[in-house]
Amino acid sequence: MTFSFTKNYGPWALICGASDGLGAELARKCASKGLNCALVARRKEKLDILKSELEREYGVQARSVPMDLMDEDAVDQIENIANSLSIGLYVINAGGDTIGKRFLESDINARQKFLRRNIELLTESLYNFGIRFQKQKHGGIMVIGSDQAFSGAGRVSLYSASKAYAMNLVESLWTEWRNTKVDIAYMVIGSTKTPKMLGILEHYNVHLTTIDLAEPSDIADWALSNIDQGPTCVFDINPNSMNPLASPTVRRERILRNTQIIDFFYGDLEADETLMANLKSGRNWK
User: Fold this and answer.
1) DSSP conformation class of 104
2) Which end of the chain is less packed: N or C, by CB atoms within 10 Å?
């Protein structure tokens, strides 16, 4: 059967964090493929400008939905959007570091809001869209992540921890959904030439020539071309790489092996010789 982007992921895409930078580029790429776009972010003016651009340039429908994803009712607001539109693609491009301080210097209110968006919103919305997409027998979920998911780092403790949480959650859901028509992928990216990043560099007097920033348009093209190549895709890593940490192939094989081990413990799988060897090694991550 011929693959159809609009059939698999249409007719509407819901894009969180769509006001500018990578989110706006993802919306443009979705629209260029024929998807209508629901645009979610805080800044109404920017959303309205992008909405008009998408309708004018690509002939699709677009809707701007200004909201703060840190609000306590953000999950309900997103669910209301999904109930009013036929969503086939859910893109989470929101989760930047809003704390910017070492852990013991951070404010409790800032931590709570950050975790509400990066953990609670992510978890509940993936559950809601997972149920929705399984019922309609098609759909795609794409979580834009960060290479900070691969390790902790000082000054960004909650940020790196939340990115690792998101990556492991997506990888786990991918194993549970891999035999369905619902795709889910975690897109690992590094520093990107977005207005926010440029503002940070300017604030700290870091010259652009000192850092290699990826173009949002290139990342958007890559991301939409790899929704079905989950669970974890890394922008600057060759898909054929065997890097034990970042290789999509190695991660996929390890995730499937670990899932077999867990299925064995839950009584859903009889162990063969290879599985028993993995169990005896006690090192499932290798």
Assistant:
1) G
2) N
The reported pLDDT for the residue numbered 96 is 86
pLDDT < 70 regions, the chain: 1-2, 193, 195, 198, 203, 278-286
Could you tell me the two tokens for 14?
A: 């819901």
In contact, 198 and 225? CB cutoff 8 Å: no
Alpha-carbon distance 87 to 134, whole Å?
12
Q: What's the token pair of residue 10?
A: 């249409």
The residue length of the chain stands at 286
CA distances from 260 to 171, 271, 278 (A): 14, 9, 10
* Residue among 36, 32, 45 nearest 15 (CA): 36
DSSP 8-state code for residue 214: B
Q: DSSP 3-state assignment of 36?
A: strand
For the purposes of burial, counting CB atoms within 10 Å of the CB of 141, is it exposed (0-12), middle (13-18) or buried (19 or more)?
buried
Give the Å distances, CA to CA, from 278 to 242, 247, 257.
20, 20, 9
Amino acid letter, residue 62: A
Q: Can you give the pLDDT at residue 2? A: 52
For residue 271, with 0-12 CB atoms within 10 Å meaning exposed, 13-18 middle and 19 or more buried, which class applies?
middle
| Among the listed residues 128, 122, 177, the one whose alpha carbon sits nearest the alpha carbon of residue 144 | 122
Tell me the C-alpha distance between 136 and 87, whole Å: 10
Evaluate whether 171 touches 251 at the Cβ level (below 8 Å): yes
Name the pTM for this structure.
0.92
Q: Tell me the three state secondary structure of residue 81.
A: helix
Q: Output the six-digit token pair for 210.
A: 């000192």
Say how far apart CA 85 and CA 13 lie, in whole Å. Answer: 9
Q: Can you give the pLDDT at residue 1?
A: 42
Closest by Cα among 180, 188, 160, 179 to 251: 188
* Token reading at 167: 């990556």
